[in-house]
Design brief:
It is a single chain. The protein is mainly beta and about 300 residues long. The chain has one helix spanning about 1-20; strands at about 40-55, 60-75, 75-90, 95-110, 115-140, 140-165, 170-185, 190, 200, 205-220, 225-235, 245, 250-255, 260-275, 280-290, 300-305. Strand 4 (about 95-110) and strand 5 form a beta hairpin.
């Protein structure tokens, strides 16, 4: 569950960092408008596609994000979003498959002094999921597939602090930054159906902390921008997501270790934005995870930001 919470947080951070929402002193605004009408409001939408490929699973995820953001004064933005994810999960070790629908809501506050100086963002996300699970095993010489339904929830936050440094080339900055986040998830207990030896599973609780250190090279002009970032990521968890339950026919308890989170990896990202007409910005980016079992090997995001007023 925590993996899909991280996906929602990463999508929200992409908005906080790359989906700007005009300026309070935008010359296109009418001087006769009330003060509150002169505050920029923007709507945004994004689609994220991710591919996970490691020794334990072969997963893909498609996530849609939509929301609104508001700039009460120059440099400060507040936003909220909804996320709907449809992962396709295949467990290679336990020959299982999971169909999952995940729905999340997130909120963020982002502050920037401009291209240089302090860059700060804080995010929070809460989500719920429904899972259809299938597990195949062999009884004698006959394969059987158990099915089950379950639900779960996740809750997390993310904080990012950076400092923009102007480079000699016009419109170019280098921003070293640090990031820390935490995610908790829970799958409620469920029972299997359709096999000779069905199992009942206890609740599964999971948690994860991630820290990042990185730098972003950015080129910005009013109608075009591009960026390249390199990040070191460390993930750890206070405990493993152990799976426990009972085989009903034999009244036999079982337990096995779940995901162990204690690893380091690198992420390389590249992206660009363009504003072909006033008030409309298109944004695209791609991220590669190098040496990771926990994060996507590749993620691609495409989105748009529209200034409503």
């Amino acid at each position: 569950m925590v993996g899909h919470g991280w996906s929602a947080l990463d999508a929200t951070m992409a908005v906080a960092r790359n989906y700007q929402c005009g300026r309070a002193d935008d010359p296109r605004r009418g001087a006769a408008e009330p003060a509150f009408m002169q505050l920029p409001v923007c709507a945004f939408a994004m689609v994220t596609g991710s591919q996970f490929d490691n020794s334990e699973s072969d997963d893909t995820e498609l996530m849609g994000t939509a929301g609104i953001q508001w700039q009460p004064f120059a440099g400060l933005r507040l936003g909220a979003a909804v996320h709907i994810a449809r992962p396709d999960l295949k467990d290679i070790v336990y020959t299982g498959e999971i169909d999952l629908w995940s729905r999340s809501v997130s909120a963020f506050v982002s502050y920037s002094q401009g291209r240089t100086g302090l860059q700060a963002s804080a995010l929070a996300v809460a989500g719920k999921s429904e899972l259809d699970l299938r597990r195949t095993y062999v009884v004698g010489l006959t394969p059987e597939t158990a099915s089950a339904e379950a639900d779960g929830a996740s809750l997390g936050y993310l904080v990012n602090l950076g400092w923009g440094i102007a480079l000699p080339a016009e419109g170019t900055t280098l921003t070293p930054y640090a990031e820390f986040g935490s995610m908790r998830g829970r799958i409620n207990g469920y029972g299997e159906l359709g096999v000779q030896y069905p199992a009942v599973y206890d609740d599964v609780e999971d948690s994860s902390h991630r820290s990042k250190l990185g730098a972003e090279l950015r080129y910005d002009q009013p109608d075009f921008g591009a960026w390249l970032s390199a990040v070191w990521v460390h993930e750890f968890s206070p405990r493993d997501a152990d799976v426990r339950g009972l085989v009903l026919v034999q009244q036999s308890p079982f337990a096995y270790s779940g995901i162990v989170r204690n690893e380091d990896w690198a992420e390389i990202s590249i992206g660009a934005r363009t504003a072909p007409v006033a008030g409309v910005t298109f944004v695209g980016s791609a991220t590669a995870g190098l040496g990771t079992q926990a994060a996507p090997d590749v993620s691609v995001r495409i989105g748009a930001n529209i200034q409503l007023q």
